[in-house]
Amino acid sequence: MPLSNEFIQTRLQEKFGDSVSAFEQPYGMLSFEAPHEMNLKVMQYLYDAEDLKFRFLTDLCAVHYPDQPGRELAVVYHLHNLTDNIRIRFRVHVSIEKPDVFTATNLFSAANWMERETYDFFGVNFIGHPNLKRILNVDEMDYFPMRKEFPLEDQVRLDKDDEMFGRGGSIN
Amino acid sequence: MRPVRFNIHAKQPDARTAVGVADAPPGYPGDGFFTAKLSDVVGLARKNSIWPLPFATSCCGIEFMATMGSHYDLARFGSERVGFSPRQCDLLMVMGTIAKKMAPVVKQVYLQMAEPRWVLSMGACACSGGIFDTYSVLQGIDQIIPVDIYVPGCPPRPEAVIDGIMRIQELVGMESIRRRNGDRYKELMESYGIQ
Amino acid sequence: MIMQEHQHHIKLPEGSIEKQTTTLNLGPTHPATHGVFQNILELDGERIVSAEQTVGYIHRAFEKLAERRPLYQITTLTDRMNYCSSPINNMGWHMTCEKLLQVKTPKRVDYLRIIIMELARISDHLICNSIVGVDSGAYTGFLYVMQYRELIYEIYEEICGSRLTTNIGRIGGFERNFTAVAFEKLEKFLREYPKVLKEFNNLFMRNRIFMERLQGTGGISAERALNYGFTGPNLRAAGVDYDVRVHTPYCSYEDFDFIVPVGNTGDNYDKFLVRDEEMWQSLSIIEQAYRKVQEFKGADADVYHADVPEYYLPDKKDVYTKMEALIWHFKIVMGETAIPVGQVYHSVEGANGELGFYLISDGGRTPYRLHFRRPCFIYYQAYDELTKGSMLSDAIITMSSLNLIAGEMDA
């Protein structure tokens, strides 16, 4: 039977019941949510099940939602079933006070650096990661730049005239 | 739609206009000898044999590779040998974005170069940070090392790079041999924190 | 401050000549001109025991920058990711936006896009293969093919004005129709380039020294490659025929007839051959696309963008004379057009692999979150495994045949 989004949804709901939620299909890709302590179980199930076979991790990233208290950081996994050509996206939400998520490195070696990048930008703590250090930014950086509260520009510039950029201020 | 007007007919090469002859420096010729200022002669020798160090980080590096290629040959200006060892090179060409993580490396490479040394900053990112006004990009390499020539562009066309090299050649040719020991130069180096 | 904590000096087993390994820093500035990334190698004599990579030396915060720019301005950022083949990045981004905005491009636009993307792929593979040649000591091939990359740059210049960071195309199509001069240059390319590629092949492919340097080094099995998230020519060299153009055809690739070359062992020689064959296939795709484009006659031949005034800036002379065009121009630039809320993931077959764009839009002028799935970043993790036990000179060739582009890796 050809694999379809509805089939995957039914199988996931059979296995995990109500823990998996928020099923939707934006632009044709099935997306759902799972609680953060179950992310490995869901991925392992999707990997092992012979009729699901999601054995390729396409992407791992995070999103910061400052206006959803208790679920501010979302880690988004994109998985791909290469033989049947189906993609799936699932996300786990964690709160910003305790952003702990289990690492997927044991299942997919590709997740190693992708999780380091997510830690570097958002501060998501991946439990069990072999080498969770900053990867793209300087090591001494003490904040997580991609979070919405931090600005894009370098704050220590003295020569930029803020008025020209629409932010009020003047050349000193 | 505007029709293309330029560069659609191949130009025929003409020996009278294609080959230029350089002038001798001002001096006193004689029977078998030529006297000129030492700095002129040294400058003439130095400027036509600059060995660049291509410090290529990003897109400008690919335009540099195109400049070194046979279409926009840089080797005819004396830069046939591009070295990667700072000890052996005269011109540090910084090409591409320098992130804050990379800045100490640029400084170290500059410090390892032997005098006389010149710096050419190629591309908008090296000159001033370019389009990347972000927390992680150094807004211009002149924050850490003194720069002689800036070549703007994103990326600059190979013709622009060659123009930059020709201006470096002018600078090199006109440089006084006492410049590097003078007070103004020492002040410049102090302002960058270089001994 | 740059050197991280690192396993210094692994103790070697009893009976070895040395007592512990030597640490060699293949630092951010190295002559292999690929970009800035650092490898700290532990060497036992000439053999590599382990390698640790440091990236981020050209981190330019693209994802944060993208949150500040409206959709049509992000194209200039995507140029600078894989700068050897910027049109593929640009087209990929435009297709992501078109997927979000549900814009359907006409066939002629698709075929023109395919011509540009395949030219970019040829341009990228030419750099990669010739630099593998340079790193193994053969500079000549590089000079021969750079001549033809100049011709590709001239074609880009005819269409968009720029050589390297092209910013080519718009959401919905192109900014101007391809001129007759552009087609003339394309024909010149199609005539002359095959001979040059044949000569390049003659220089390298059955060259004994080159083959002995490249075969057997840097290999990876298909299962490990899939686990590491490899895509693109590196994965195909390992034996898996995954090509996004065939798997999820975008931009009318299904109308074209081409084969996807696959290797055996994933070693450096296989990667070289796979890229080389892909260049021949790209050439064939360009010829087919060019013939298809020439079949559009009359008014159809003037179509170079989709008819979406909400997202495609109107012609400047219309903006000055017609009211609707003026209003659309105002709305697009000031961000008053309706961008749907939603999340979309679209991927294209970049020269290095699956280049993906994950765009979350909240209806505003700028994206809420844009994440680039960069193939170089993902497969560089495997470098340690690829070079374990090989010699230092093989490690250099492995690095260059992986086609690591620092701009894409650090984004």
Output the strand order for the largest sheet of chain B.
3-4-5-6
Number of domains of chain C: 1
Spans of chain B with pLDDT under 50 lasting ≥5 residues? none
Helix/strand order of chain B = HEEHEHEHEHEHH
Alpha carbon gap, first and last residue of chain C: 22 Å
Q: What's the CATH H-level superfamily name of chain C?
A: Cytochrome-c3 Hydrogenase, chain B
Biggest interface reads: B-C, 36 and 43 residues
CATH topology of chain C, which one? Cytochrome-c3 Hydrogenase, chain B
CA-to-CA gap between the ends of chain B?
A: 59 Å
Mean pLDDT of chain C: 88
- Derived from helix and strand composition plus strand pairing, the structural class of chain B reads alpha/beta
- The tally of beta strands of chain B, per DSSP, is 6
Largest beta-sheet details of chain C: 3 strands, antiparallel
Radius of gyration from the alpha-carbon trace of chain C, in angstroms: 23 Å
Overall morphology of chain C: globular
Task: State the helicity of chain B in percent bands.
Answer: 25-40%
CATH class of chain C: Mainly Alpha
Q: Label the CATH architecture of chain C.
A: Orthogonal Bundle
Low-confidence segments of chain C, given as residue ranges, are 1-5
